[in-house]
Amino acid sequence: MSETENKKRILVVEDESKIAVTVIYNLQRAGYACELACDGEEGLKKALTGNFDLILLDIMLPKMNGFDVCRHIREKLATPIIFATAKAEEIDKIMGLDLGADDYITKPFSLNELIARIKANIRRSRSEIVTTPTETAPSTISVRGLVIDPAKYQVTRDGEPIELTKKEYELLSFMAKNQGTVYSREQLLAEVWGYDGFYGDTSSVDVTVSRLRSKLEVDAGKPEYLFTKRGMGYYIK
Ligand code: CA
Prior knowledge:
Elements: E1 9-13, H1 17-29, E2 33-37, H2 40-49, E3 54-58, H3 66-76, E4 81-85, H4 88-96, E5 103-106, H5 111-131, E6 141-143, E7 146-149, E8 154-157, E9 160-162, H6 166-177, H7 185-193, H8 203-216, E10 226-229, E11 233-236
Helix pairs in contact: 2-3, 6-7, 6-8
Bound molecules: calcium ion.
Calcium ion is lined by residues 15-16, 58, 60-61.
């Protein structure tokens, strides 16, 4: 357990030196060891060789943009990645493409929020590593024609495979395990994203739900699986 005594290592890929300096200063104060890369190529190189616990990745970067950096990292590593973005269009792209990023944070971000998200993402990635191989094979979950197979991370509807991003899959499988229970956006952020006591932006829940519907439902406007309880949240039945 000596690893827990060591500092967690974070790679900050950021070309705006003012942001980089502030972020690194505060992460170091919070007990993290940081390294900086000022462009996409350097970021990718360091990510692949540096043994980091988490990567904070800007999108608009010289030499190689954050999306490509992320894609290349994911060919080799499962290190948690948080995108830092200033634009709504970029958020849409992050959620829509299966880039394998774990999270995003919108600029300008508060440092407390950044640190909360870093903690949550590192905790999640560690618990996945610890629990996955030792657990007995989890059984499949069925909701009528929809079958979720946790052993294969696979979802089918009437036998047809449905391609989901990691977050879409996690949201679906969490709600399907608890069929009929209505979850608020905040509860889903806590359960699926790992943000305990986080009261900030919940739009990533809505975006993920709407993407999930467009993949699961025959008519996303008249859902048969993933329902909205007005003013309360979401549930699966
Ligand atoms: Ca930038």
